Request: fold
Amino acid sequence: MAKSKSGGTRSYIRGRVGADVYSIGRDAKGAKQQVVRSLAETVANPQTLAQMRGRMIMSTVMQAVSVMRPIIDHSFDNVPAGQPSISEFISRNYALIKADVAAHPASGNAFGLVIYGGKGMQNGYYIISQGEAEVPAGLGFTSDRSAAKIAVGENGTYGDLVSKWGMTSDEYLTLVSFLENDIDDINKGIRLVTARLRIKSGLNAETVITAENAAAAFDIEGDVTPTFSLSDGVLKIDIATVSDSNFYGCNYHIVTRKVNGAFIHSTCVLSLAALLTNTADVALPTYPVGTQMYLNGGDI
Reply:
């Protein structure tokens, strides 16, 4: 509360009233004081169209980074884990988004562009891993990519599973799913869930696999624990059914193999088309100046 010169007290306020923005600051003695700032009524230094498109594209790719960091920080061959891998992701996908914006500024775009001030990853066609690792022949995936499947055969055993799995206990299968994240009605985003599996060493090769003991054959880490089911000799490993009903049917898999002491990865290109798409024209940043919205220096 602030004391009035005429007596009594008044509340500090925050927010915008017309062209004035109210905030709370402190004077030279450290006491709270009301601060009022008037917005400019003209744009003295408008951004060029190219500059705004660049900012829009970078915002879009960085929102994707914020969602997919647990995957993309180690998923490119011959690139160190951590920030170097993230920088590789940014470089590759910035170029893809930039080309898409140039080719499809108003419609038909492959990437859902983040609107000015918006949050959350949109749909797109992102390279999330790239490398030379081959997926073992025994590993398959359902047509909608909602689950991995392994044909262990009727009365299949752990020994059959190890054979079909085709990877050592140092190598991984990462399942990646994307779920709807309702930020608001205009700018929906997504969140990522993962399950990373590797086969355990020392399994009893004679043990017959069931839906109940299949999980015990794996070391599992990640956001979710997969569900295991067995039907007609096919073991399914599914993370699409363990979170919520807003799964987008886009389960992606990354195989991580170990060759000469170094990890390599399979190539995975994400294609999310079920989310809201903001076109380049819609997503181009607009800037509030006074009571108007300006684009590149002109009223819109």
Q: What stands out?
A: The chain has two domains: 2-38, 49-283.
